[in-house]
Amino acid sequence: MIADLDYGLLPDESEDHFLGLEQAQLVGTDTLLTTRDNIEAVIEAKAMMCVYGPAGSGKTMSVNSALRHLAPDITHRLELRAGPTPRDIRHGLFQALGLPGEPPARPIEFDTLLKEALAEEFRILVCDEAQWMKKTGFEFWRHLWDDKRTNIAVIFAGGDGCYKILRREPMLASRIFIWQEFTRMSKDEVRATIPAFHPVWADVDTVLIDAIDKQAAHGSFRNWANITTHILSGMKKPNLKQVDENLVRWVYSKIGGV
């Protein structure tokens, strides 16, 4: 059974934020700027890069943003799920590259077709949710990148699982040009970022922002997007004009675990 994959070019910027949060802003954090610098270097070197860290820390958002700025027309993105095999990756690349006809039935013929396509012009291949891959999946990417005919840069983005697999395999790890670790935002980063992240937080007291992060958001962009969505829903009620402790407690009753 072929694993579930998403194919194609970069999504619209409005899709970057969890739950499609309206009015959410991409904040120029140090991490975002570092990602852009690193990807620019990877593109120039035609190399491979591993972006890794906990869920909700902004990996995909930062990579997508950087590539929209640097090379939107030559980026092809795959999002892997459900333990993809090399066969799944072959079919994913076939669709992401928009190749004509039917996929070849035999792996050797399929690989030849992909290599010929990837030799035609320089392309950037993004493998998102790479933590789902096993060694055989990473080996397949290495096989494509190592071929002297192909003209590609490869960016892996995923959780700590992809980092651990790559690091314990010298043949794979030695080919990664840049490793970039994402972490959850620190208290100071939250204070600097969240008021700019969405207008609803612009005038909220720092003490309350600190409390929300400590109790529920835990430095995660995804958690903040989730909380913000509930805040906006709660503010639709009569006479609610600003974020206060009562509204925050109501949000906590929705998200649980606080």
Automatic annotation (TrEMBL):
UniProt feature coiled coil, ranges: none
Pfam families in the cross-refs: AAA_22
Boundaries of every ORC1/DEAH AAA+ ATPase domain copy: 45-166
Name of this chain's protein: ORC1/DEAH AAA+ ATPase domain-containing protein
Organism ancestry: Bacteria, Bacillati, Actinomycetota, Actinomycetes, Kitasatosporales
